[in-house]
Inverse folding.
């Protein structure tokens, strides 16, 4: 008789169970990039919880925007906050304009090396990124170091971005915590997991371990089980951000999100419909489907009306005859 190794355990959880392990005041890393493969189902669950006063570390997108709109961020560490097709995340912009939280804004490469340093349990890593730029001016706490070797080169000491917990979203995962991306870019999600004391992976689909290597090459097995605390199966869990190749970005919904974010009254209605505090992920998807049906209804009506309009445009004589048959007969 054989028994499974103690580390080969089922790590599946619900979004609510993940959020139940998070506490106010934590440093929380959120994977993905801009409006691409963000763990939005976990972020929505976080919004339904009382957890607040967070230090958020993220290549930011709507994850940062939603947490900013809800007043959950105490400090943000980022290189940018964007919706990609919409350059600047509107909730982030509004929060910064009113000084809602402290901001550490650094170069993208400095951010990446900060993740590397944290993943390797180093206090910092020397980088050239940031030298000669305003990064040093706007972040006076940053320091430079000099190479101890004969070159004597000066570097920025990119500080480690350590986290209490990290949230990431991947295409596939198994119950043990191995995670796989199938899109064009890993987005540093493995570093987020390794840089955190606890890491939670949501995925489009849970599969058997053997199926992971059937889906893609070995290098797509991005996240290893030793760095994962919990796994959540969340189909569409990146919505409205993209999760290629499983789903594209929902551009129409993202535009509606951005438009609502520009007006406090509109945002209140948007949040009440899609992000009620007593809601759940099933309710979110029902609201999204209903919204898309509403958007499609005028288009269907337009398509149904088009043939009649086309007929009227292309055959004016026929239309005139129908309107006044006698006059048409007399003229011809």
């Amino acid at each position: 008789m054989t028994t499974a190794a103690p580390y080969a355990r089922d790590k599946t959880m619900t979004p609510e169970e993940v959020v139940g392990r998070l506490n106010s005041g934590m440093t929380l890393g959120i994977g993905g990039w801009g409006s691409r493969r963000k763990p939005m189902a976990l972020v929505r669950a976080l919004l339904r919880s009382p957890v607040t006063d967070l230090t958020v570390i993220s290549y930011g997108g709507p994850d940062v925007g939603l947490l900013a709109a809800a007043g959950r961020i105490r400090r943000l560490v980022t290189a940018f906050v964007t919706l990609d097709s919409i350059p600047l995340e509107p909730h982030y912009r509004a929060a910064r304009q009113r000084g809602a939280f402290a901001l550490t804004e650094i170069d993208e490469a400095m951010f990446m090396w900060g993740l590397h340093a944290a993943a390797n349990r180093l206090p910092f890593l020397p980088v050239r990124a940031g030298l000669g730029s305003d990064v040093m001016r706007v972040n006076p706490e940053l320091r430079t170091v000099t190479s101890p070797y004969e070159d004597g080169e000066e570097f920025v000491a990119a500080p480690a971005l350590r986290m209490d917990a990290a949230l990431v979203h991947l295409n596939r995962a198994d119950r043990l915590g191995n995670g796989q991306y199938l899109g064009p870019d890993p987005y540093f999600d493995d570093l987020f997991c390794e840089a955190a004391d606890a890491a939670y992976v949501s995925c489009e689909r849970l599969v058997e371990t053997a199926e992971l290597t059937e889906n893609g090459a070995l290098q797509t097995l991005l996240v290893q089980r030793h760095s994962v605390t919990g796994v959540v199966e969340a189909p569409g869990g990146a919505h409205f951000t993209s999760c290629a190749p499983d789903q594209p970005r929902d551009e129409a919904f993202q535009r509606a999100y951005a438009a609502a974010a520009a007006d406090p009254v509109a945002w209140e209605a948007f949040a009440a419909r899609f992000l009620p505090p007593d809601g759940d992920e099933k309710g979110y998807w029902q609201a999204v489907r209903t919204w898309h049906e509403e958007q499609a209804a005028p288009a269907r009506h337009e398509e149904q009306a088009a043939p009649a309009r086309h007929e009227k445009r292309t055959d004016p004589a026929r239309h005139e005859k129908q309107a006044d048959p006698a006059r048409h007969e007399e003229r011809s």
